[in-house]
Amino acid sequence: MTTNGVNGTHDGNITRNSHRFDPNFTENVLRAPGPNANPRVKQVTSSLIRHLHDFARENQITVEEWLMAVDFMNRAGKMSDDRRNETQLVHDILGIESLVDEITYTLASDAQDLPTASAILGPFWRKDAPKRKMGDSIVLNELKDADHTKLYGEVVDFVTGKPIEGAELDIWHTAPNGLYEQQDPDQPDMNLRGRYTTSADGKYDLYCLRPTSYPIPYDGPAGQLLTLLDRHPMRPAHIHFIVSAPGYKPLVTQIFDRRDKHIQNDSVFAVKDSLVVDFLPRKGDPKADFELKYDFRLCSFEDAKKNGMRGLEQESIGGMGAVS
Q1: HSE toward the beta carbon, residue 155, CA cutoff 13 A
Q2: pTM of the model as a whole
Q3: pLDDT digits over 24-42, tens only?
Q4: Would you give the distance in Å from CA 49 to the centre of its chain?
């Protein structure tokens, strides 16, 4: 049996593990960082380079296909602004944000109890939502067919169970038409958004809407990819939260309405069993048709470190965001 000069090749038939392409190319790229490279950045990018290079070789990516991918990313970036993050949406439909969320917030298996589970931020959070008083509604416009809801509960330490004073709940969700206010010119600015701060008893209460399912925007690159993959764009009905307090790990999460048919088939893979809730009928309250009691259990940075919550032992990390 003869070879044609290509490593691992016999009689022109190339085996799966052959070096059909330059066997030294990836290693040359990996040797490029200098001695003062950030250790974590070097670790992550080196791994990324290996996986990307192997992916390109395994799938024999052509220049034309690579240029299509570059254009795809460029278009996603151009569509992104402070009201819509198309690039993040692409990550969501690929399950990347949900996977990173799971990796980041998973506790050590021997923890006796668990804090409230996290879920993805999503692309429609807005900074500096208005601060509201306890008992206020985030509904700023008249909605005749909406299911108004009383939402209340406590914010507590997941280890001690004690109430947390000064915890901020940042809440947002869509209107019944499935649109966030920045997507809908008919909604008031910052509609269905608000921030509430707990007092010494750790309790919160507010009025919102029972959420509705909706399709993620599919007029851009993310939607184009869904179409090519023959996937639906629907998200189950949910409400977004960021719950934070001094000394505690900020909690980014969502709660999901159990009655929604998309609970088992979320287009961004964000549903967790512990975040599925039941809205109950509310009587004697002219402001609400439904109610939901939901408590948030936060983990302190100290307990996060004890329980192995990697990367969350400190309130802020310098450099490139989460890179330290």
Answers
A1: 29
A2: 0.81
A3: 999 999 999 999 999 999 9
A4: 24
